[in-house]
Amino acid sequence: MQQNQPAGVPPLELTGERTLPDVPEENYWFRRHLAVYRWIAANRVGGRVVDMACGEGYGAAVLAQTAASVVGVDANPDAHDHARLRYRAPNLSFARALVEDFDTGAPYDAIVFLQTIEHVHEPERLLRRFAELLRPGGMAYVSTPNRLTLAPPGAEKSGNPWHLREYAPGEYASLVKPAFGSVELLGLFHARKLRLHEVALKAGWDRVHPALRLTKPFYEKFVPAISERDFELRGGPLDRALDLIAIGRP
For 206-234, what is each residue's pLDDT tens digit? Predict the structure, then answer.
């Protein structure tokens, strides 16, 4: 369960369907998601924004720091109640609805849909709908985990039971491009101390810490210390990307 929630805000349980802040063991995944939200807010998004499948609501709150208005949409009643009680700002609201059905006041300047397309039964249809809801010049930001780095080598998907399908970079590009006039594809990668951790693993760190009985004390400090600055978005070869971020324009 989430820790240290404000008075009157019911904590959410970590089920694996969505990531949560305020769960120390989940901090890596939370920061991995938050890095993309902060990048969108800082670099690209403004005007009227919809955060589809907003979950706990932290991402919609980040987007509201720079956008004129943000609506966070989620069908889960517990997540919706938590979000509307925890995150409050004059330009931020939350709606309980299926993302396939939501449409209040289109067109929108931006649609954000992060780490959810892999849960969707008809992703092609949903992406076309997003394109229809955007104003000319608007942008859709749609991310998904990279199957090549999430699943075991050669597997069709990871063991996450909530994922219906996972995509390699080429497959993801083929999914997203038909729905939009143009698509830019970026990747999320480790940076700073997470990059150093990758180097240490290649050098044999996984053999050293169990032998020295350092596993528990090291990771109890390392994981909570991860921040969104320990990730970076960039283009280039994407086979080793953690997540794939498509930016679609009508």
Answer: 999 999 999 999 999 999 999 999 999 99
Beta carbons of 20 and 14 less than 8 angstroms apart: yes
Looking up residue 185, the CATH number of its domain turns out to be 3.40.50.150
Residue 57 lies in a domain: yes
d(C-alpha 90, C-alpha 74), whole Å: 19
Q: Is residue 80 part of a domain?
A: yes
Distance, CA of 77 to CA of 170 (rounded, Å)? 35
181 vs 136, 176, 247, CA distance in Å?
A: 11, 10, 11
Instruction: Look at the pTM and tell me if it is higher than 0.85.
Output: yes
What is the residue-wise DSSP string for 111-162? EEE-S-GGG-S-HHHHHHHHHHHEEEEEEEEEEEEBHHHHSPTT-SS-S-TT
Residue 103, C-beta contacts closer than 8 angstroms, at least 6 positions apart? 133
Distance CA 144, CA 177 (A): 15
> Is the Cβ–Cβ distance between 249 and 139 less than 8 Å?
yes
**What's the mean pLDDT when you consider all of the chain?**
95
Is there a domain that residue 95 lies in?
yes
**Phi-psi category of residue 154: left, alpha or beta, with phi > 0 → left and psi -120 to 50 → alpha:** left
From 240, 193, 139, select the one nearest 31 (Cα to Cα).
193
Residue range(s) defining the domain that contains residue 49: 24-190+233-249
| Residues listed for the chain | 250
12, part of any domain:
no
The total number of structural domains in the chain stands at 1
